[in-house]
Structure formats: structure tokens, C-alpha cells
Amino acid sequence: MFSFPLTHTITASREILAFTRPADAVLAAFFRQHNKLGRQERAAVADTVFTLLRHYEKINTVLHDKAATRVREAVLCALALRGDAACASLHETLSAPEKALLTQLQTQDFSGSLNVVAELPAWLIDTLRGQYDDAHIAALGQALAQSAPLDVRVNTLKARRDKVLAQLQAEGFQATATPYAPFGIRFADKPALQRHALYLDGTLEIQDEGSQLLALLSGAKRGEMVVDFCAGAGGKTLAMGAMMQNAGRLYAFDVSEQRLAKLKPRLEKSGLSNVTTQLLAHENDARLHRLRGKCDAVIVDAPCSGLGTLRRSPDLKYRQSPESVNQLIELQKNILRSAAELVAPQGRLLYATCSLLAAENTVQIEHFLAENPAFELLDAQSLLRPYTDVPINGKMMQLSPLDHQTDGFFAAVLRKC
């Protein structure tokens, strides 16, 4: 009979609630250290921790802003909010104050506090109020507090989406076509695909639908010279390589050797041979000079707050701050300025983030255009229309889990005149 690993969950939660490292990294290290935990136990710990992070505002309210120190009670609150059978099985072991706390959690009216309704910290509420009214912030926050589905992209160099989808459904997977991305498949139940043959041979790549749409916005074509300026682990690099049908030159740059290392095994199984990876020292690395004014498309998926990915990384709203966002904004300006120098006449510059904050998105583009009159803003919806029809307000694309059921991606496409 399964026994809920309460002590392990409390231990992991205590470290995560310090908010000094990403929650997924803390959990990965914790599971390596406690390698005798079974798969069901690891899943129980992870699910409870992420429930605690998603509903931290609510839990912290009933714990009088002491959730980070009253960790056992915070974990019990997370179990209660999950409606988990583990909470019922633990009921007899709870003290009278703990039982009273859970009753309060289930019956308390939180409607008068926007940060609790939206499950967002006060600093982020204040920032978003410059963009949205309170009703929209509440709805957006609730959408961000949900768990994200698993999206994958079908590698069109190896297969067609309709055939892959039919195979997966025949195998019993709860899979559907993504609403907007033409090569995407969505799994509502987030199965483990890492050992599936289609994943192992490079036919399937894990990639959020929003990220797939960013790759389409690049407009990458056969024979072009394309740069993924902040390639990271290379999801968009691989998608653009497939769009280019393995013809042309595709450069994947990043300042992180660790991130680029994750691209290598994905690249080997992708079937692509036109990708060159390059580790940069910084955004002004001298090795970029040879590409100045030569590139048909340059994609800048800029380092950002990541606040559009709270469905996957709910701890980010507590690890970021107005100060850290301001530092990122300055870095984004520098990267965008450097990347723009690589664009050829009539070439395209795509700036993207996984943020919902205007200061990282529309304001950055407005600032750039004011300083760089040689560039003009293109209409994102029109650029996507050959592939798909995505509801977008204005020329720049802002996706969100509330309106598009994707992560909160932003993108703007500029053309050099």
C-alpha cells in the first residue's frame, strides 16, 4: 500500500521555498540524493511541491505570511488543495490546530484580495496593473496557476503530423492536434515520452505550441542564412532547420555552454546537417563580426523574466523581482542591438520573450524602432497566415494561457529596409 512521503515532501519544500534556485533543479538534486524513492513517491513529492508553489498566495495567507517557515503546515495545505487521498489518509495523524487550519483553508473567502485570487505576488500585480484591469489580471493569474499540457512538434523531415497523430491515438495516447501550430501535438495527461521510439529517433520534439509559432514567425526558408542568436537548448533551431528543409546555413549561438550541450543530442537525431553551433563569450563577441549585414533572418529569443511560463515554473514569480526584471531589460536592449547588426538589407529580425510584461516586450520594440529607423515593424498575424490563423491584437504577437492555451510568448518581427 502506498504511503505518502510526507517527510520527504517537507524536506524538499523547505529548500524550494528559499527561492534561491529553480524548483525543478532543486527537485532533481533531491531525487538524486534520495534515490531509493520509487516513481510513485517521486511523483507525489513533485506534484505536492508544485501545488504549493501554484497556490502559495492562498497558503501563505492562512499561514500569516509564514509559509516558508511553517513548511509542514504549508505542505498539508497543498495536499488539501489538491484534494489528494493522501490528505485523508494523514488526517488521523494531524494535530487539532492542523485540522483547524485545513478547515479554514477550505472555507475562507479569498475574493477580497486580488493577489490571492490571481495567485500572483503583490509586486507582479502592481506591474500588470499598468497593462490590464483587475478582472483580466485575476483570470490571467488563474490560467497561469494551472498545470500546462505536454506539447510536441513533429519533425517534418521525418514524418507528417496526421500519420504520427493517428499512430499515437492507436497506441492509446490521449493526443490531439494543437489548435494553431500546424506540426504540433498535445497530450493532456503529460505522458513520459522519453523512451518512445518516435522521440528516440527524432520524429517528436518536446516544444510548447507558442514556441513552435515563434519558429514559424521567423519565416526561415530553403537556402537562407539564419541565426538563432540565443539558441539555448535549440528547440526553435531544430524547428527552423526543418522549415529550411536542411538547405541553407543555420547558426545556433548562445553564451551558455551547458545549454548548447543539450542541443547536441537533439541535433544528432533530427536529421539536420545545416546547423552550426557556436559558444559566445557575450552578445558582442568578435566572432559575430563576419556575419554583419549578411543574414536573412536573425531570431532573438531574449533572456527574460520567464513570467509567461508560470504554468511550468510557478516559482519564478517569487524568484524574480522588479530589480531583476530591470537588469534583464538592459541585457535585452544590448542583445537586440547586437543581433540587429547581423541583419542583411530586406532581412528579418525577430525579437521574442516568454514574458507577459510590456517593459520586456512592446516597450523594448518601441525603444528599438525609435533608435533604428532602418527597421520597420511587420504584421505578425499576416506572417503566420500561410501556416495558421492565430488571433492576435495588433502587429506584435502576445500569446497567453488565458487566450491561446500556450505559454505567454511575445514576438515582434522587424524588417531592415
- Shape by Cα distribution: globular
Low-pLDDT sequence parts: none
Q: Percent of residues in beta strands?
A: 5-15%
**Amount of helix:** 40-55%
- How many helical elements? 19
Structure summary, number of beta strands: 12
Largest sheet: 8 strands, mixed
Radius of gyration: 23 Å
Explain this structure:
The chain is of the alpha/beta class. The chain has 19 helices and twelve strands. The protein has helices at residues 6-16, 23-33, 39-54, 56-62, 71-82, 85-90, 96-107, 114-118, 122-128, 134-144, 161-170, 197-200, 209-217, 235-243, 257-270, 316-319, 322-340, 362-371, 380-384; strands at 150-154, 175-177, 184-187, 204-206, 225-228, 249-254, 275-279, 295-301, 343-353, 375-377, 397-398, 410-416. The strands form two sheets. Strands 5, 6, 7, 8, 9, 10, 11 and 12 form an eight-stranded mixed sheet that branches. Strand 6 (249-254), helix 15 (257-270) and strand 7 (275-279) form a beta-alpha-beta unit. Helix 1 (6-16) packs across helix 3 and helix 13 (209-217) crosses helix 14. The longest helix has 19 residues, at 322-340. The protein is globular, with a radius of gyration of 23 Å. The mean pLDDT is 94.
